[in-house]
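Lecture notes, continued. The same structure-token format from the folding unit now serves as the input rather than the output. Read the line below as a description of shape only.
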């Protein structure tokens, strides 16, 4: 659910702006689409893994039938999606329907490559505010996400019961629980602190829940959040290997019994369910003080309708997009992928049906878009944050020093 490193935002924006200008010029130069009914549309996404690819192919096909078109789906690896979009824009071959990782929408919409969805009369009511904001640029909705994801605290029920540890709800309780659960061959907590956007993604709940802000990283609130992670490593409650672990590695540590708790996303649930001897549950991310609500980042993909020379094809693509975001489709998708339906009423019903998803549904209500504050400048801030995490957890800098450097990176200093 978290996209790999991407090309610098400014280079993407510049290249795509030029390509979009060419596309729009061509659209106004007469040679419009051949007359006749639109019977098929093209779709581009990054759902290459199974069973996800096949599941999405079926969903797109079903929604295509409701719109009266055949859907021709192309899936590329996540790291290849934005370069593919750039290439297609320059050659005037953008798909009719385009999926984007939600942090990418701002920079793509900024160039004019996407069409605002209000022109098609698509219903965006009932969406959780944070989820709707992931598809919004400059006050207009350019993309809608059928579902979202975020992170929460998984814990081994047997290990907590054996140690007499209650599920931690606050930072102090988390530190105490992680210490009591740590023993030879097992750490109390596992998380992803690596030098990628995944590391930043996992840090955001701690930064935001403490009142920190990506617009100004060198604050006491941010330093306190980073100090928590430093303390967990220094005390031995977290492995120093978190500096290199991916979220998949974190899952493996937890599933193998080498970590009593982990920070991870709901996409790990299908694999955890396969081990009938592993008794686990999920709770919201612990917060600085009792009674607070955790603020977590939103993952997931938005669906968009690119600019093209054919208004008829755009209309058909918009009908498919509307179907993908209908209550019935988003519920079916959530059940397949262990994600949170974007419409709050649908999410509430889903949490009752799938109790293991309740903590994620609860967290999504207050979750934020990563690009909500900085827009196209988010990648710079994200780079600064994971750089600070690495420096602080290795002891090269104090959290305060590391975050001062992060702020310089975020502002291009």
């Amino acid at each position: 659910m978290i996209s790999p490193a991407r090309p610098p935002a400014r280079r993407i924006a510049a290249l795509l702006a030029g390509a979009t200008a060419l596309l729009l010029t061509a659209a106004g130069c007469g040679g419009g689409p051949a007359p006749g009914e639109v019977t098929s549309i093209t779709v581009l996404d990054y759902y290459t893994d199974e069973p996800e690819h096949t599941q999405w192919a079926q969903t797109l096909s079903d929604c295509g039938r409701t719109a009266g078109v055949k859907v021709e789906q192309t899936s590329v690896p996540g790291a290849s999606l934005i370069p593919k979009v750039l290439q297609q824009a320059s050659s005037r071959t953008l798909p009719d329907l385009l999926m984007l990782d939600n942090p990418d929408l701002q920079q793509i919409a900024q160039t004019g490559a996407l069409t605002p969805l209000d022109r098609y009369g698509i219903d965006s009511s009932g969406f959780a505010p944070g989820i709707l904001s992931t598809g919004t640029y400059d006050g207009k909705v350019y993309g809608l996400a059928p579902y979202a994801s975020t992170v929460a605290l998984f814990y081994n029920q047997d290990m907590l019961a054996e140690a007499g540890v209650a599920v931690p709800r606050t930072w102090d309780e988390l530190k105490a629980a992680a210490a009591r659960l740590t023993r030879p061959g097992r750490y109390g907590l596992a998380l992803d602190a690596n030098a990628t956007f995944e590391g930043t993604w996992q840090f955001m709940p701690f930064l935001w829940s403490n009142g920190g802000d990506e617009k100004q990283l060198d604050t006491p609130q941010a330093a306190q959040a980073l100090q928590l992670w430093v303390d967990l490593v220094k005390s031995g409650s977290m492995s120093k290997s978190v500096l290199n672990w991916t979220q998949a590695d974190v899952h493996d540590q937890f599933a193998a019994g080498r970590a009593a708790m982990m920070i991870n996303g709901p996409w790990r649930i299908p694999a955890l369910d396969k081990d009938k001897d592993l008794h686990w549950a999920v709770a919201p991310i612990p917060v600085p003080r009792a009674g607070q609500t955790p603020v977590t980042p939103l993952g997931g993909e938005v669906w968009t309708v690119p600019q093209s020379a054919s208004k008829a094809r755009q209309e058909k693509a918009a009908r498919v997009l509307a179907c993908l975001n209908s209550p019935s489709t988003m519920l079916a998708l959530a059940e397949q992928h262990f994600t949170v339906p974007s419409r709050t009423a649908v999410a509430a019903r889903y949490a009752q049906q799938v109790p293991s998803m309740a903590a994620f549904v609860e967290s999504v209500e207050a979750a934020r878009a990563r690009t909500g504050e900085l827009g196209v400048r988010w990648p710079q801030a994200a780079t600064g944050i994971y750089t600070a995490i690495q420096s602080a957890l290795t002891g090269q800098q104090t959290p305060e020093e590391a975050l001062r450097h992060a702020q310089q990176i975020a502002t291009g200093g």
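Point for the exam: The first strand starts at residue 40 and ends at 45.
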